[in-house]
Amino acid sequence: MKRFTLILALAAFFVTPLMAQTPEGWEVRVDQSVNAADPDDVPDLMVMATGDGFHVKGGPAGTFWNSANTAQGDFTAKATFNLIEPSGHTNFYGLTFGGEALAGAGQKYTYFLVAQNGNYLIKTRAGENVSDVVGSTANAAVNTPGADGQSTNMLEVRVAGDTISYVVNGTVVHSGPKGGTVTNGIVGVRVNHVLDVEVEGFEVG
Q: What is the C-alpha separation between 146 and 181, in angstroms, rounded?
């Protein structure tokens, strides 16, 4: 299993919606909310190294990747997500895979995310078009915040032959044939807006 560690590359820095400052090898796509009814709480996205991972606090949503973290064929991608403080409404965070042209208008990827309400979702993105593989769905495997407002969820995407399995805390929450889902490509992380999340143990192998 090859482990890609972000902490060595991620010094404390701020990413603004207009000019992203990224560590060597890593890129961040910052997505401002265009929904007047659901704005970003602050204009900046903060990212800093913590332990064996990194801490994201928005502000805007962000997609994080290193083009070296590219998977082909059979693979498992995983990371542990610690929700430090829930947002005032449901927002999702988790893994992306099958990434292509992530910095441009033609960005493509699939994302597997969880939220503070105990739901998960799986979607594909092609440019500005987003399609459901599995819409927002409740599952007991997704840990929700405790009395301290915090929760921890370990997410995995397992690709074996024509099958993709989506796993939360060791439980397969969805599994099925690839169909039109592209799995080869860049693997990364997505944190939607107005969230405070630590990411650790990011691996692809």
A: 34
Q: State both tokens at 145.
A: 């915040």
**Domain-located, residue 191:** yes
Model pLDDT, residue 51:
67
Write the CB contacts of 18 (distance below 8 Å, at least 6 apart in sequence): none
pLDDT of residue 54: 82
Asked if the model's pLDDT at residue 155 lies above 80, the reply is yes
Q: Which two tokens stand for residue 123?
A: 């979607």
Domain that residue 163 falls in:
69-204
Query: How many domains is the chain built from?
Result: 1
**Distance of alpha carbon 54 from alpha carbon 70, whole angstroms:** 20
The residue with tokens 């449901």 is 90
CATH number for the domain that contains residue 85: 2.60.120.560
- In-domain check, residue 183: yes
Residue 196 bridge partners (DSSP): 57, 85
Q: pTM of the entire structure? A: 0.87
What pLDDT score does 131 carry?
Answer: 96
At 53 the pLDDT is 77
Q: Is the pLDDT of residue 139 over 80?
A: yes
Handedness of CA 167, 168, 174, 180 (dihedral sign): negative
HSE-CB of 19 using CA atoms within 13 angstroms? 0
In a domain, 175, yes or no: yes
| pLDDT of 26 | 67
What is the rounded radius of gyration, in angstroms, for the C-alpha atoms of the chain? Answer: 16
178, part of any domain = yes
Which one, of 64, 90, 59, lies nearest residue 196 by Cα?
Answer: 59
